Structures are given as structure tokens and as C-alpha cells.
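hiii so um. not sure if this is the right channel but i have a protein structure encoded as C-alpha cells and i wanna go backwards to a sequence. like what aa goes where. can anyone help
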């Protein structure tokens, strides 16, 4: 766990500041909007699926 605690903040910063943002320059506005739409839809579905499972597990009990 100690190794992960040291690794993740550096890794996340590297991804966010030195990978993700520079990569966005390769996409036009329409492509960026489409990616954001897909990400929002994915997140919305993921949360919905998670809490559906929580409710189903609760109902089993």
C-alpha cells in the first residue's frame, strides 16, 4: 500500500498535466464534445448500474 500511495499522485499528475491536456490539442471541438458526451453517458450508466446492484443485494437480504 505504501508503494501505491507514493506512486498514484505522481502518476495522476503525469497523466493529467503531461498526457491528457497535451493530447487534447489533437482533437477539434466537435471531437472533444463527442468524447465528453460519451464519458458522461458512461459515468451515468456506471453509477446507475452500481446502485441497481446495491438495491438488488439489499432486497435479497
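sure thing!! here u go:
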Amino acid at each position: 500500500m505504501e508503494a501505491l500511495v507514493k506512486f498514484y499522485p505522481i502518476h495522476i499528475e503525469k497523466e493529467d498535466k503531461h498526457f491528457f491536456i497535451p493530447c487534447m490539442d489533437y482533437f477539434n471541438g466537435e471531437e472533444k464534445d463527442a468524447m465528453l458526451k460519451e464519458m458522461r453517458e458512461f459515468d451515468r450508466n456506471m453509477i446507475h448500474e452500481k446502485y441497481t446492484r446495491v438495491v438488488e443485494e439489499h432486497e435479497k437480504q
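oh and Residues 2-60 form one domain.
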